[in-house]
Amino acid sequence: MAEIRDRDLHLVKKALAIAVLAIERQPGPFQSLSDQADMKALLDRLTPSDTMLAHYARSAYIAVTGEPD
Question: Quick one: residue 5, left, alpha or beta (phi over 0 = left, psi -120 to 50 = alpha)?
């Protein structure tokens, strides 16, 4: 399996955070809660601190909404 590091790892974490938020904002039966839970768990495993998780959550919010928090 390929090793993901540095910039690639950053992009994976950012993409996961965006996907989690996008699923959360999707109404009704198209909201895949199992995918969201799995993505959150993977993001938690890849991110060493709560501070970094908050950074990715804020970045995701800005990317999805186009607005600062």
Answer: beta
Cα dihedral 11, 17, 21, 23 in deg (nearest 10): 80
Single-letter residue type at 36: Q
CA distance 45 to 19: 16
| CA separation for the pair 8, 14 (Å, rounded) | 10
SS3 assignment for 25-59: HCCHHHCCHHHHHHHHHHHHHHCCCHHHHHHHHHH
Q: Which pair of structure tokens corresponds to residue 26?
A: 């999707």
Mean pLDDT of 28-56: 93
**Predicted TM-score of the model (pTM):** 0.89
